[in-house]
Amino acid sequence: MITEELAPIRRLDRVTRLDPLGRAASDIRADRATATAWRLMAGHGPRGRS
Predict the structure, then answer these.
(1) 19 or 15: which carries more pLDDT confidence?
(2) What is the value of pTM for the model shown?
(3) HEC states along the chain?
(4) Cα→Cα distances 45→16, 18, 20, 41, Å
């Protein structure tokens, strides 16, 4: 499930790098924070347990 959630974020990030206008810094920070949260939950469980 987590891999599925990260996939669209990663795709959007790749497409954005090709966009000459880019994205707003706040959008990028929010996406990175979301991706980090999903990675942490994947590694430690939703309540911080392995």
Answers:
(1) 15
(2) 0.49
(3) CHHHHHHHHHHHHHHHHHCCCCCCHHHHHHHHHHHHHHHHHHHHCCCCCC
(4) 30, 34, 38, 5
